[in-house]
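As the next step, I selected for study a record pairing a protein sequence with its backbone structure tokens, which the following lines show:
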Amino acid sequence: MSWFENYPASIVNWSVDTEDISLDEGKEIFPGKIVLGGFGNTAKDVLYRGTQSEIQQFAKRLVQEAGADNLIIGANCTVPRDIDPQHLQWAIEAVQKESEGLKSYE
């Protein structure tokens, strides 16, 4: 990923699993840029197969680890076409709630 450190983009997305680079670490590599991702994008990953609690806990942890600023939580790239839209809604709800909580302390 260091090859792309100075690439002229406002938002950077990568597979945190494949690259083994967290969103927080990505913020250090790409200072001032928005980082996008965090969830795996296969039918084996928590966003696809997880319960509401599992998905929301995972989303909450992503926000806690990376901080709410310059962060968009999403899948590593895309999500399977047959994903249950409710799973996406659960992740959205958790990110919104966690982000609001973090901003209230800044």
Remarks:
- Strands lie at 11-13, 34-39, 71-75.
- The first strand starts at residue 11 and ends at 13.
- The chain has a mean pLDDT of 92.
- The helical segments are 16-19, 23-29, 46-49, 52-66, 85-103.
